[in-house]
Each structure stands twice: as structure tokens, then as C-alpha cells.
Amino acid sequence: MFEILLASIPLLIRGTWITLILTFSSALLATLFGLVVASAQLFGGIVPRIIAEAYLYIVRGVPLLVLLFAMYYALPYAGIDLDPMSGGALVIGLYFAAFMAEVFRGAVLAVPNGQWEAARTIGLRTPRILADIILPQALRVAGPPYINTVIMLVKGTSLVSIIGLADVTFVGRQIVERTLAPFEVFGGVAVIYFIICFALSRCGAYLERRTSFVH
Amino acid sequence: MSTDAIASQAPVEINIRGLSKWFGAHQVLKDMSTEVHLGEAVVVIGPSGSGKTTFLRCINLLEQFEEGEIWIGGEAIGYLADPRTGRRTSRSERDIARMRAQVGMVFQSFNLFPHMTALKNVALGPVRVNGMRRDEAEALAVSLLARVGLADKKDAMPAQLSGGQQQRVAIARALAMRPKAMLFDEVTSALDPELVGEVLDVMRQLVQEGMTMVIVTHEMAFARAFAHKVLFMADGELLEHGPPAQLFGDPKTARLQAFLKRFKEGYQL
């Protein structure tokens, strides 16, 4: 029995690699676009704010799987044909950007108003206040929920196995179909996800300690 | 409004004319006019909710005001009025920031930047706003921290300082901008009683050095001993003003009499 798992290790590693690439690219997109959405909400005029709000409501109200299906099955009809990797990263990135935006917006709002006022009274202007005063404090607040959202994203990537991207879940399912050893194989897949998420959690805890204001 | 005997020879540094402000339908400042002369320490007293803090925040444009003018050192702050139509337009953020830099403000809740040392808190303004070289700004910060008695705390983070120490750093931070005037908003109200004295000592020193100051406080003993002029506010109105001996010794309005009486009784209850 144990040999089955050993024999499937190279395949699982390849799948893990796909999962990691997908995680990295979609997390990067989610972070950048999340920052854009949060900035629009916090500092934008009425139009950017409405667009950002609408975006958040739509994403919050539709399951990720449905969005993946829409990308995979519906977009080709519109003449847009994305390969599963780019399409998956795009959809997952844009989906989690909504949650990232909430993390960033909440973190900026968590910095007490007195910090803005103190900075204004010494004559600093908004961009400078953000860079020197607000963001260093907000990033610290954002750290734990940010890591949390990335962990959700890692697990969310497993949905791409349904649209045919050979991530670690997809590979696991293939191996099970051939070997009929679901317990061992999916157990292994679960352990791989767990290791990735556990590592992220530990990184988060480490950063939290490092960025504490009093060492 | 007549000027008061003390310091009236000095030029007017802060001139407030017909200041009115509303929060929605509620008028919180009602046609306030007063003058603060160069080197004068003006203390604002009054019951809570009387608009003292709002008044102070208007001087530094932390609050917008709907009517009236505030002049600091001969410059109208916040708004530009068209001489023909009288219509007001807001100044640019750049202008407002430049004007704010000329008036120091110290808050009830200190508002130190928690991610910076005491030294960096004080040096930030000179470097970022006045374009001072970092080493110069840090030398200035060290001398100001020494002046408020915190030379040995320059590398401490705010969280490592007591409330009184934090408030003194906040005063040094405001002084670092070499302000024309300083505003103090109930700066001892959040402090433990035994820490109040060290902050008042620094303020007394500033009064004696001739800093122009507007101080909102409940420290009546301080007002009595060191203010050049006292303003009494109630319900957004400036009801009485004059030298402390006059206001505390011979209050004219029933509101001030009641206020001072409650204050004397307060500790005996």
C-alpha cells in the first residue's frame, strides 16, 4: 500500500508545484488589486467608490466555483480563450482581491484618527501621512488577516482541478482513479495543503513578532 | 472687543472674528471674537460641551467653520474671502498644511506616532515639512527633549513611556516646528494625578519664555497662576473674558459663578 504513495510522489510534487505557482500569482494579483479597490474606497471620489462597492458585493455574492465555470465555459463564447492557469489565477486573484480590499481598508481605518490629526498639525500632507504614519501602523494590523486570506486562497486554488488544471488536487484524483487508494492519496494531498498553510501561519506569527513596536 | 491690560502692547498674533460653527443643525460656536497677543497665554475654561475644544480645533483647521475669520500672524487661515462678493473658498491643501505647521498642537490623548522613537517623533516634522537635514533635525530634537526633561528617553518607543512623558514628547514635537503659537487641548485630562505636574511645569516654562499659547484646561489653579487672559465659554458662546484675577475673583455672569462654585465643591463631595 505504501508503495502506491511512494510511486505517486513525483506526480504529487508536480501538482504541488502547479498549486504553488497558482497560489503565488493569484495572491500577488489579489494583493495588488485589493490595494487598488481599498484605495478607491478610502480615497476615491464618489464614482470609484461606487464601482469598488459594487465589485465587493458581486464577488461576495457569487461562489468562486461559479466564477471559474464562467471563465472556463462562458468566456470562450465571448472570444476570450484563457488557458486554465492564467484563467484560474485571474479569477482566483480577482475573487480574493475583494477580501484583501476589506483587510487593507479595515487596517487603515483601524489607525486612530488622532494619528492623522497629529500628523496634520505638524504640517504633513496626505501622501506623506500615509507613507510615514498610517501605512506602517496599518500593515501591522493587516498582517494576521492578510495571512488568513492567503490561506483561504491556497485552499481555494483546489477548485481549479475541476476546470482541468493539474494542481495537486487534480493529480491526487487522477492517482486515486488509477490506484483505488483514496485514503492514502488524498491523505497525502491533505498533508501537502496543511504544510503550505502551516508554513504561512508560522510566517505570519514571525512577522507579527518582528513588526511589534516594542521589542 | 476691547483688549486686555496684560500684553496688550504686543501685536495681535491670533485674531478671531465672528467665528461660528455648526454640527448639522446644532450651532456649537456662536459668533466668537477674541484676540491673542504675541507672547500671551490665554486659557479657555467652561463646562464640558461648551465648545472649547472645537474652538481650539478651528484655530488649527482640524475643524472647518462656516462663518467668521481666523487670522494668525496677519494671514487669514483656511479660507479666502472674495472682497466683492464675500464668498469664501477653501484654501488648497498645500496652503492649509503650511499654515498648520506654524501652529503647534498638543492633544489630550498625546497621539504620538507609536512606531517611532521619541527622537523620531520630534524630528519628523522638521525633516519632512521644513526640509531640514536629518542630523540637524535630530540635534534639534535632542535639545527639545532635554528641554522637556526627557534627554535620556530619546530612544524610547512611546509605549515605553508614561503618560506624562508621552505628553512632554508631544510638546517637544510641536515645538520642533518652531511654531508662532501653541494650542493645548486638555493635555492633562488623560493623565494620572501624579503626572499632571510634570506637564504643567513644561507649560509654565513656555509661558515664561513668552510662547503665544491658547490652552483649554480644567486646571483652574494653573489658569489662575499663569494665564494672561481667561476666556469663559458656555453653550458655544464666549460669555466672559479678562485677566484671571477678574474672572476668578469677580465673575460677572451667573453661568461663570455657577461653574466656579461647582468646581470648588467638586472635590469636597
Describe this entry's structure for a reader.
The complex is a heterodimer of chains A (215) and B (269). Chain A is 82% helix and 0% strand. Chain A is mostly helical and 215 residues long. In chain B, strands 8-9-10-3-11-12 form a six-stranded mixed beta sheet, sandwiched between helices. In chain B, strands 2-1-4-5 form a four-stranded antiparallel beta sheet, with helices on one face. Chain B has a two-stranded antiparallel ribbon with strand order 6-7. In chain B, helix 3 (118-128) crosses helix 4, helix 3 (118-128) runs parallel beside helix 5 and helix 5 (163-175) packs parallel to helix 6 (193-209). The radius of gyration of chain B is 19 Å and the shape is globular. The chains are: A mainly alpha (215), B alpha/beta (269). Chain A binds chain B through residues 112, 114-115, 117-126, 128, 132-133, 136-137, 140, 213-214, and chain B through 60, 62, 93-94, 97-98, 100-105, 107, 109, 111-115, 124-125, 128-129, 157-160, 170, 173-174, 176-177.
Distance between the termini of chain B: 38 Å
Average the pLDDT over all residues of chain B and give the rounded result. Answer: 87
Rg on CA atoms of chain A, Å: 21 Å
- Return the average pLDDT of chain A rounded to an integer: 89
Fraction in beta strands of chain A: under 5%
Strand order of the largest sheet of chain B: 8-9-10-3-11-12
Category from helices, strands and their pairing of chain B: alpha/beta
User: Which bin fits the share of residues in helices of chain B?
Assistant: 25-40%
The number of distinct β-strands of chain A equals 0
Poorly predicted regions of chain A: none
- Tell me roughly what share of residues is in helical segments of chain A: over 70%
User: In oligomeric terms, what are we looking at?
Assistant: heterodimer
